Amino acid sequence: AADISADLEHVLRTADQIDARVAELAALIDADYAGRRPVLVGVLNGAMIVMSDLCRAMHCHVEVDWMAVSSYGSGTRSSGVVRILKDLTVDVAGRDVLIVEDIIDTGLTLSYLVHNIATRGAASVRVATMFRKPEALNAPVEADYVGFDLPDEFVVGYGLDYAGRYRNLRDLATLAPHVYR
Ligand code: PRP
Ligand code: MN
Ligand code: MG
Q: What sequence ranges are listed for the domain Phosphoribosyltransferase (predicted)?
């Protein structure tokens, strides 16, 4: 089988650009949480890459936990229905929570999560996302830390998948049409 790079159309953000932006976000987050110990909540599976890079670029004390929340289906669009596949292990009551996402598209996943975690009595709930699609600007919740705003194209890599694949690409790229036609 060919290398996965044969399935790409063009690279929107290189691994080097992403690394540099992660370092900038980490510095902002470190400053904002100085003297506190936030719980970083990664949203599986997409956030696995940004979580590992972001938490290691930070210098304050953190705890790391995960939720798996998925919209139904494995296609290219969110379906509008959210369900919890794996819940938190940490009790976040009274804690400062930073939700870590790879991308916000419709904002549906994030709206659900922010409300859900706030309901558990978290002291604060903020959001960091590596990427943001244009539609996210119409969502009822806003991200506090955003890596890059993207055009409205279907992208993969840096944790983002198409039908479960391509998460392990270091760059963020569009898929060649032959892959999904
Ligand atoms: C993707 C992405 C975000 C969410 C964003 O996750 O990782 O979590 O969709 O879309 P929204 O803003 O329209 O809700 P997905 O449900 O594909 O699961 P995955 O992280 O396992 O790929
Ligand atoms: Mn996700
Ligand atoms: Mg996905």
A: 16-162
Q: If pLDDT is split at 50, 70 and 90, which confidence band does 165 have?
A: very high
Domain locations along the chain: 18-150
Spacing, Cα 36 to ligand 3 middle (Å)? 32
Classify the complex by whether its ipTM is higher than 0.95, answering yes or no: yes
Catalytic residue annotation? 105
Residue nearest to atom 18 of ligand 1 (CA): 70
CA distance 80 to 67: 18
78 pocket-lining for ligand 1 (C-beta < 6 Å): yes
Fold that domain 18-150 belongs to in CATH: Rossmann fold (3.40.50)
Atom index in ligand 1 nearest the CA of residue 78 equals 13
pLDDT tens-place string over residues 7-47: 999 999 999 999 999 999 999 999 999 999 999 999 999 99
Q: Are 174 and 9 in contact (CB under 8 A)?
A: yes
SS (H, E, C) 11-53: EEECHHHHHHHHHHHHHHHHHHCCCCCCEEEEEECCCHHHHHH
